[in-house]
Amino acid sequence: MLSGLPFPTDKRFEMTRIGAYQHGIYPRSEAVVAATRGLERKRTTPEEVRDRFREDEEDIIRVQKQAGLDFFSDGLLRWQDIFRPLVEASRGMEARTLVRWFDNNSFYRAPEISDSPALEGELPEAFQEAVGLPEPRVATLPSPYLFSRAAHTKGDRNELMLDLARNVLRPVVDALRGQGYRVIHLQEPWLGYFGLEPGADQALAEALQEIREGAGGAAEIVLHVYFGDAGPHAGFLRSLPVDAVGIDFVATDLDSLGTGWEVGILAGCLDGRSSLVESLEDTAAFARRVAEKLQPPALYLSSNCELEFLPRDVARQKVLRLGEAARSVKESLR
Amino acid sequence: MSMTETTLLTMPLLTHEMGSLDKPGWRVKGYAGAKLEEKDIEEARSWGERLGVQDHERLVELLRGSPLDADGKDEVRRWSSRYAVRLLESAGLDVVYDGEQQRSEMYAWAVAHANGFEDRGSVRAFDNKYYTKASVTGPISLRVPYHNDEFGFLQSVARAELKVPITGAYTIADWSFDEHYFQDGGQIGSSDRRTRRKEARRQFILDVARNLIRPNLDALIGLGARWLQIDEPAGSTGQDELDMFVESFNESVEGLDSVFSTHLCFSDYNLFFPAIEGMTGCKQFAVGFANYDSRELGVSDEARPGYEVISKFRDLPYEPILGLGVLDIHTDFVEPPELVRDRILYAVDVFGDPNRIHVTPDCGLRTRSWEVAYAKLQNMVEGVQLAKKSLSL
């Protein structure tokens, strides 16, 4: 576990540390929507689009600061989907077929595997845009299990998972280590939505260990299971070599997770697919219940999934609410 | 049995469009009240000439007077509609519409004409494609039938048979936020909350079907619409909601006198089975497959991986027609007629009956330029001719 992070020490629930951050792709503003549309129709310039993106990046930093979040994300605003910058920066795969992103009106281009995939060069360009991002930072990446299952391949998916972990994800994590990233958030909706394929458990553990070694103790690894009930997988999840497990509490009963967690918990307690903004009182009360019931060494508050399914203004309200809730929980546990 | 139903059931390899086409620059800018550039006016002139649009010089004249007033904007929308019909007819399609030129967008247009919805802002669908998402905030009802004007106009314009595309109830509900049916959800992290959420969701979907879609369909039938295509791109979005999708279709159409079909796209189509066995009022399923297929020629299973699921449609007990998507609408790659032919021959072989196969693009072509869309559709029609020749039809 990391030390020296800006968390208060909880006195009532043993040593639970409380923090909050926003992960995943954040929605684009109406100005970026208009600019990117305009560029495709040749009605605006790349410079105009770049400027609008820059304004959005400044805005999301401002909102996270205002919310008082503990780690900063660049919002992955230029990412066309969670795989794309990694696929484009790697050999052995390309982005092609549009596939529905689970049960959303949102689509990704499935990585088409043609050879053993490996990152070429250093960090993908998408990370180099984060020059003005304050520290400590959080990076969001696809979990190796998600990556290997969402890809189109004729090969063995567990071998692919290990290849992706060793040759694509680990090199990225290696490079991020020295750039102020203290949390590596791995999105894992595949496990939540479809479950774990028989025989994939050991390979997933190995793949996560590979990534964790890449972090070298400088960043925590959070595996976030969402778009499904984590309850049936609780025993497996808490055995994995990660620092925290993310739970989608829109889809999971708190009571199904047992007690006395040895790894941290990321509580997805704001609904990233609902335009209604949750009440501060209910959210903070729920977070306290999670801390009390699971007694994890660390408790991160966040949304249950990425916020890109919301219009930007609604997402902004959710981020502010997240910060308020985290503050409330921290204060009440002091 | 109506005339259209007879046509549907007896015309092998009938071709039709699947809804949207791109809106030309002169349509977008003209309707937005902008001053048009010479290149926009030239685009209107050259396409008018190419498609043989009668009196298109009047459009050119109208555009030269931009920015347009309210009457001029209405005029430009109708011209765009007229052009799109001619493009589809000129490509050789048997059944056409107008590329939804008079609508804002398939979802936004519907909720803009309904009571109970409020816009919330843009949400991305993929890459740089977005849609405006609304929230249901009150009781749902039809404010005004929202396809009547365009349909009435197209009846006077089209030479080919018309099929009206209409966004379905499940898709409208799925693409909306819910701030009305599930307001007091209770504490997260509990199964009780999820149960209540599901009940609220079902009520929402069925209210859209009963109070918005059905009266709109009824109004179109009153005007003489004989083939109504219920577009359900979101149909398989919720694996555990397929019963609601089927129920919403049935609630929308049951007892109405027309031919009803459904359009499905960009999904794992296996998920629809066996749920759609209950959609007995659906005469045709128009489904996008080319996006998942290879570009290699051939009629073997290996050559046609994108069409693996079609036997499940064949085996539906009420024997619907399959609208076979043969054009990938997400790429500028223009499918050669021989590739279209092989996709058709593969499907005919699986079905064992060319009367149960129609030929279509995967989905609306609005993300392609007219140049690309036209080339794709022309090749589709040519591919049908090659298939017919091969089948001695």
Structure description:
The complex is a heterodimer of chains A (334) and B (393). In chain A, the strands form 2 sheets. In chain A, strands 1-9-8-7-6-5-4 form a 7-stranded parallel beta sheet. Chain A has a two-stranded antiparallel ribbon with strand order 2-3. The two termini of chain A are 21 Å apart. Chain A has 334 residues and is of the alpha/beta class. Chain A is globular. With 393 residues, chain B is α/β, with parallel strands linked by helices. Helices cover 43% and strands 16% of the residues of chain B. Chain B has 13 helices and 11 strands. Chain B has a 6-stranded parallel beta sheet with strand order 5-7-8-9-10-11. In chain B, helix 4 runs antiparallel to helix 5, helix 5 crosses helix 7 and helix 5 runs parallel beside helix 13. The model of chain B has no long low-confidence stretch (mean pLDDT 95).
Key descriptive features of the protein:
heterodimer, A: 334 residues, alpha/beta, seven-stranded parallel sheet, two-stranded antiparallel sheet, 11 helices, 39% helix, B: 393 residues, 13 helices, globular
In short:
Chain A has 334 residues and is of the alpha/beta class. Helices cover 39% and strands 20% of the residues of chain A. Chain A has eleven helices and nine strands.
For the largest beta-sheet of chain A, the strand count, sense and barrel status come to: 7 strands, parallel
Report Rg of chain A: 19 Å
Residue ranges of chain A: pLDDT <50 for 5 or more in a row? none
Helix content of chain B: 40-55%
Q: How much β-strand is present in the residues of chain A?
A: 15-25%
Please give the share of residues in helix of chain A. 25-40%
Largest interface: A-B, 47 and 38 residues
Distinct helical segment count of chain A: 11
- Average pLDDT, all residues of chain A: 93
Furnish the topology, listing elements before pairings:
The complex is a heterodimer of chains A (334) and B (393).
Chain A: E1 17-20, H1 30-40, H2 46-67, H3 84-88, E2 90-100, E3 107-119, H4 125-128, E4 137-142, H5 144-150, H6 157-177, E5 181-188, H7 189-194, H8 201-215, E6 220-225, H9 234-237, E7 244-248, E8 264-270, H10 280-294, E9 298-303, H11 312-332
Parallel strand pairs in A: 1-9, 4-5, 5-6, 6-7, 7-8, 8-9
Antiparallel strand pairs in A: 2-3
Helix pairs in contact in A: 1-2, 2-11, 5-6, 6-8, 10-11
Chain B: H1 3-10, H2 25-32, H3 38-51, H4 56-64, H5 70-91, E1 95-96, H6 106-112, E2 114-126, E3 129-142, H7 148-157, E4 161-162, E5 164-167, H8 169-174, E6 177-178, H9 191-222, E7 227-231, H10 242-253, E8 259-264, E9 284-287, H11 310-314, E10 321-327, H12 337-351, E11 357-361, H13 370-390
Parallel strand pairs in B: 1-4, 3-6, 5-7, 7-8, 8-9, 9-10, 10-11
Antiparallel strand pairs in B: 2-3
